[in-house]
Specification:
By secondary structure, the protein is mainly α. Helix content is 68%, strand content 3%. Helix 1 (9-42) runs antiparallel to helix 2.
Amino acid sequence: MPEQQRISFYNQISSNKWKSFLLMFIVFLVLIALGAIIGIVIGPDYFFIILIASIIISILYIWMSYYYSANLAIASVKAKPADRRIHKQFYDSVEGLTLASGMPMPKLYVMEDII
């Protein structure tokens, strides 16, 4: 049986960053295309104004989604920062994993059980 290759976290992180960049670029192009279509439908008098507005809106949308997506995800599940004293086992487990992998300690959150 052939040996399995070991997965590198750094390669996975790099791959995810490229995929995220590609996805953001596609969203940017779709929003610009939507603005161009709206500009064509409304008429040539407002085409460039609508195109410039769609460029500004798409840049703002991508910027906000890049910097605030983590906060939105945390808020959507009503997660709260984990208290080190209350969630000691959770902290110890994550700390051990980060030390073993050489990665920095992430911010830890807990959410209420839905059931």
